[in-house]
Amino acid sequence: MAEEKSVYQNLADRIFAPSPTIAGLFAMLADEQEAKMLLAMPATAPQLAERFSLALETMEAKLDEFFKKGLAFKSKKPEGVLFRMCRDMVQFHDATILWPEAPRAYFDLWQKFMEEEWPAYAKMAEQILPRPMTRIIPVEKSLSPRAQILAYENVRELIDKSDPIAVTKCTCRLIAHKCDGPVEVCLQVGKAAAYNLERGTGRQVSREEAMEIIRESEEAGLMHVTMNRSEDMHFICNCCGCCCIAMPVMIQHGTKMCDPSRYTAKVDPEVCEACGLCEERCWFSALTVDQEKGYCLVDVEKCMGCGVCQVTCPTGALTLEATRDETFIPAA
């Protein structure tokens, strides 16, 4: 007879991550009764209060705790505020790691999962999803003067039309801490910003401060990443190639977790001094200095079109050229 699953394993199954480690993460955030409450979602506070024989005020306080921990999300419905669990493992990762009271042991268990189990999960997700969920946005100043950049691939335009804007800590660098890249650099826009401001996991920033965060991230060699669609973006992450949930599995295992931008790096051999700065900054080993030729070469198959290479190019030899059609970015 099969052994009955624990409530924590049932929670892990609910977010399509049937891992004992994920079950252990849930156990660090909720006791058994709380776990059963989460499994009873989606539901309103009165429905849960009745089901678990608790006073409505007690249940509302419990749901507020779940919300702040990142275990439950709110949506307004005709019958009242509906609470639901995180929908998948990635949302569980992003929401709960930002819980301000999360202990270091919680981060360490997450990182254990990322090192030991995530590559296989990522490969499975690649096979199921028609396209990666995220895409690169190019560094604005790296673009060729002839480039016709679209509004939804222009960081400045995305920020200019967003309200509110909040900044949160990078969940990936919080748990991995493999580099000294800045941590408070993940920009949340629109609904995602409002969500993090309500939870207390982000702070509101002006458009000017948001652009300063963008510039700081570019100087630090971080890549701009957003949702892989042409409208209703919720975030602009600034990602490294060592801590990020997506980039290391792409670099080390070839798993397609993030689409490139529509652009590819191009070198002007007449201007390049073969200094090697771009080669050092490229996370994907797409740039190689050819000492015999005296300039840098671009492997277009590896280039993600982020433009990080260009930021510190002393001669301006690097630009990004459009190599993919506008239809490359999904409409929704």
How does this structure look, described?
The protein has about 325 residues and is α+β, with helices and mostly antiparallel strands. It has two domains: about 5-115, Arc Repressor Mutant, subunit A (Orthogonal Bundle); about 125-325, no CATH class. Helices cover about 40% and strands about 15% of the residues. It is built from 15 helices and 14 strands. The protein has a seven-stranded mixed sheet with strand order 7-5-6-9-8-4-10. A three-stranded antiparallel sheet has the order 1-3-2. It starts with 6 loop residues before the first helix and ends in a 10-residue tail after the last strand. The mean pLDDT is about 95.
List keywords for this structure.
alpha+beta; three-stranded antiparallel sheet; 17% strand; 15 helices; 2 domains; 14 strands; 332 residues; single chain; elongated; Arc Repressor Mutant, subunit A; 39% helix
